[in-house]
Amino acid sequence: MFQITASTILGIISGIFFKNPLIIKNADHLIDIGLCLLLLFVGIEMGKNRNIFTELQKTGYKILILPIAIVAGTLTGAVLASFVTDLTIAESSAVGAGLGWYSLSAIELSKYSSELGSIAFLSNVFREVSALLFIPFISKYIGPHETIAAAGATSMDTLLPVITKSTSSNTAIISFFTGVILSSLVPLLVPLIIGFN
Question: What's the domain count of the chain?
Fold first, then answer.
């Protein structure tokens, strides 16, 4: 947990004080390379456990319950948030339907309103950063599957290494599978929900 928090804070400080033009210009490529390396090592860790896929097969259709519960919980929270913000139920739900995928949800909702696109970006970034910081605590005090719920769509990529480190390789497989389903739902849910506004 300390390493994750320290790395995040160090990154923020570096971004504020050390603006190297070469790094800024190639930041997207460097992030992609770093993410691919992280996923490679997570894949190696999962591959070491020979029983993972057998356990996954035993789980069967029940593995779909987690992504369905995450979508239902997120949208319920978004509807409740609409009562304490200036957003309509459809706008708030569309922001929530980003499920942590800040880039796509922000782009989709910017077509509707630049303000709503900004809200989607910030709320989904906040979800990812919060999950990054709290996943170790969630794993220890609540449970392994709840770490996946906190990560949302990012449970298959950026937060997968954190989930794997905080839980187990079995949970990592479920996390990856859940992230794939949630990421597939975002481009469908966001335009569909904002269409009701």
Answer: 1
